[in-house]
Amino acid sequence: MTKQITAERKTAYYLGLVLMVIGGFLFFSIFITGVMHFGNFDNFEANPRSSMFLVFGGMAFLVLGGIISGIGVRGRADSGVVLALENARQELEPFSRIDGGIDKDALDELDINLGCKPPRVIMIKCAGCGKLQDEFSEFCKACGKKM
User: Which of 48, 45, 47, 53 is closest to 26 using CA atoms?
Assistant: First the structure.
């Protein structure tokens, strides 16, 4: 199983991001030009056509970029481009490893121990009664003598 993301997937991911940025600029440029030309009715018939091109072209770039970026992230097998379930696990391995590391860091931060041996507890035997006490106990819980 590979532990590295292939160059093709990186290229697809970044190409998708670039297309999404271009699509965002095209889509939101209609609002900027609308504010700049507010109240200007010159060339009234051509402006709506160019505005619709910007809006729908921007949306198309956003959708296409999202699809290509998703293929780059998940790989061809997991995104449904290629129906090969045996390759899906291999393509997702770097991300699964990262997700597991993030989860482990969060559990370690919260001091949660899942499925591992419990921490070793040190007990001290009372000299008076012989009962086991916590290591930091000052007095025996059974007989009350000083430890």
Answer: 53
90 touches 1 (CB < 8 A): yes
Let me know how long the chain is.
147
What confidence tens digit (pLDDT) does each residue in 45-88 have? 656 667 788 889 999 999 999 999 988 877 765 555 655 556 66
For 86, the token pair is 């045996």
Residue 73 lies in a domain: yes
Please indicate, yes or no, whether residues 81 and 128 belong to a single structural domain of this protein: no
Q: From the DSSP assignment, how many helices (H) and strands (E) are in the chain?
A: 3, 2
Q: Global pTM?
A: 0.48
In a domain, 14, yes or no: yes
Distance CA 41, CA 96 (A): 56
**51: domain range?**
7-109
d(CA 134, CA 141): 9
